[in-house]
């Protein structure tokens, strides 16, 4: 899978239709509504964040959020 | 010109490596052609068969100890090296991590998994499992994966709170479910004919089920699959079938002049227990002229009973009262092997396999020499 084909693994995947057919206008609109999930540094809750939203946990108000681990498989050599 | 053949005593003396307080003497063997004038040391298979001995001291699945007597150091060392680096075992080679939210990093976790010793049915490991062939240049690696060279394993653990735990519980293993991830949590996923070869008690399993792999806290998860291949220790130490494979030379302790009374007790303390025994000087010994025991009847004397237990600490050489009374040494052709198996092989089977391996290597060399001459 090339980097352009990669879909950000969030709950709102239906808004992404893959890179090739999209015009610049629709892509930017989708980014406006695209939701990313983060993990709260304080209460470990899953925090959905829209673009431009304040970086803040909705549950406890903590301002430290962590990126989630990739959903893709990672391969290692056991050496 | 014919020369006098050496006496038994002389031959024994030539086999001894001298161990002094600060130095070691006569380390090299001298039993090769042309070294001693008039003596024939030509290679003779009958002589080798007659002189070579193997005596087992201990033979358990996990550890074996035996003496290999009458061979050159090069042969003994070849066996040792083959056992460490050339006897194949299976080990985890690739780890596919779907999720790992534990505190232990992916790379470290994969490395730890690789070092876990596994075992399984001997028939399957010896006769069914084969080497993984190298894929052709333009093909993906997994194009050579088959049931006879790849074993699949899975490890999928999620840590959760234990609702039944006591309120003041402090032990994380009771407070949470799956707080500790052990080697026994690894699940064998048989494929194809592996179902037949590794069924029931022959299943691929960790030798030590209680090896701790990682510690988790509620919400953390390890979710991965692994594949194992056959490999040799020269590629990576995880493939080595032995934990230790080592040899030492048999120590010799020669008491030149009698050590008596208080000195004898101190002398015994210079060695590990069981090496020196204190015995009473008999009347017959005391009566014998020139034995050194005259007038010492029923006193204690030091007697060497089991030099094999000695660690050759040379402690007795540090004390003046034993000067000129004792000679330490080692027998150059008596190798005391100690083999500890990691569990995939029986410890004595590793040694037998190393003999077969050396034979095979010699046979290949012979063929190549024949081809070279042709």
Automatic annotation (TrEMBL), chain A:
Gene Ontology molecular function, alphabetical: DNA binding; DNA-directed RNA polymerase activity; zinc ion binding
Coiled coil: none
Major subcellular location class: nucleus
Cellular compartments annotated: Nucleus
Polar residues bias: start-end ranges: 1-14
GO biological process: DNA-templated transcription
Region entry Disordered, spans: 1-24
Cellular component, GO annotation: RNA polymerase I complex; RNA polymerase II, core complex; RNA polymerase III complex
A Pfam short name: Zn_ribbon_RPAB4
Keyword vocabulary terms for this entry: Metal-binding, Nucleus, Zinc
Similarity annotation: Belongs to the archaeal Rpo12/eukaryotic RPC10 RNA polymerase subunit family.
Protein name: Metallothionein-I gene transcription activator
Organism: Lasiosphaeria hispida
Lineage: Eukaryota, Fungi, Dikarya, Ascomycota, Pezizomycotina
From TrEMBL, chain B:
Any one GO BP annotation for this protein: DNA-templated transcription
Pfam families: RNA_pol_A_bac, RNA_pol_L
Family matches, as CDD domains: RNAP_I_II_AC40
A Gene Ontology molecular function term of the record: DNA binding
Keywords: DNA-directed RNA polymerase, Nucleus, Transcription
Family annotation (InterPro entries): DNA-dir_RNA_pol_30-40kDasu_CS, DNA-dir_RNA_pol_insert, DNA-dir_RNA_pol_RpoA/D/Rpb3, RBP11-like, RNAP_Rpo3/Rpb3/RPAC1, RNAPI/III_AC40, RNApol_insert_sf, Rpo3/RPB3_RNA_Pol_subunit
Segments passing through the bilayer: none
Gene Ontology CC: nuclear DNA-directed RNA polymerase complex; RNA polymerase I complex; RNA polymerase III complex
Domain DNA-directed RNA polymerase RpoA/D/Rpb3-type positions: 63-368
Location in or out of the cell: Nucleus
Family: Belongs to the archaeal Rpo3/eukaryotic RPB3 RNA polymerase subunit family.
Stated name of the protein: DNA-directed RNA polymerases I and III subunit RPAC1
Species in which this protein is naturally found: Lasiosphaeria hispida
């Amino acid at each position: 899978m090339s980097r352009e084909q990669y879909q950000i693994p969030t709950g709102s995947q239906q808004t992404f239709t893959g890179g090739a057919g999209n015009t610049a206008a629709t892509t930017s609109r989708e980014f406006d509504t695209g939701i990313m999930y983060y993990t709260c540094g304080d209460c470990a809750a899953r925090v959905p964040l829209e673009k431009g939203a304040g970086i803040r946990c909705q549950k406890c108000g903590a301002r430290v959020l962590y990126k989630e681990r990739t959903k893709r498989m990672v391969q290692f050599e056991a050496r | 010109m014919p020369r006098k053949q050496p006496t038994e005593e002389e031959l024994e003396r030539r086999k001894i490596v001298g161990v002094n307080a600060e130095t070691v003497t006569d380390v090299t063997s001298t039993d090769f052609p042309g070294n001693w004038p008039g003596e024939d040391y030509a290679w003779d298979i009958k002589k080798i068969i007659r002189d070579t001995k193997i005596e087992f001291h201990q033979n358990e699945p996990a550890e074996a100890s035996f003496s290999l007597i009458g061979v050159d150091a090069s042969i003994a060392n070849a066996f040792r090296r083959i056992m460490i680096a050339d006897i194949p075992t299976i080990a985890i080679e690739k780890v596919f991590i779907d999720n790992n939210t534990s505190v232990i990093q992916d790379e470290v976790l994969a490395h730890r998994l690789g070092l876990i010793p596994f075992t399984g049915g001997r028939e399957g490991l010896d006769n069914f499992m084969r080497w993984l062939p190298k894929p052709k240049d333009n093909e993906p690696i997994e194009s050579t994966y088959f049931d006879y060279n790849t074993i699949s394993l899975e490890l999928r653990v999620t840590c959760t709170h234990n609702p039944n735990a006591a309120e003041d519980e402090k032990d994380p293993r009771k407070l949470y479910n799956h707080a500790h991830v052990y080697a026994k949590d690894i699940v064998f996923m048989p494929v194809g004919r592996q179902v037949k070869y590794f069924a029931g008690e022959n299943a691929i399993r960790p030798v030590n089920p209680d090896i701790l792999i990682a510690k988790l806290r509620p919400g953390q998860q390890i979710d991965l699959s692994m594949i194992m291949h056959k490999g040799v220790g020269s590629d990576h130490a995880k493939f080595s079938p032995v934990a230790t494979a080592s040899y030492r030379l048999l120590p010799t302790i020669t008491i030149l002049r009698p050590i008596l009374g208080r000195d004898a007790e101190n002398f015994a303390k210079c060695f590990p227990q069981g090496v020196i025994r204190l015995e009473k000087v008999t009347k017959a010994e005391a009566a014998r002229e020139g034995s050194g025991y005259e007038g010492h009847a029923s006193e204690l004397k030091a007697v060497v009973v089991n030099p094999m237990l000695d660690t050759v600490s040379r402690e007795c050489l540090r004390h003046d009262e034993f000067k000129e009374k004792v000679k330490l040494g080692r027998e150059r052709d008596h190798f005391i092997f100690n083999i500890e198996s990691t569990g995939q092989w029986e410890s004595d089977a590793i040694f037998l396999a190393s003999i077969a391996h050396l034979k095979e290597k010699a046979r290949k060399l012979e063929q190549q020499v024949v081809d070279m001459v042709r």
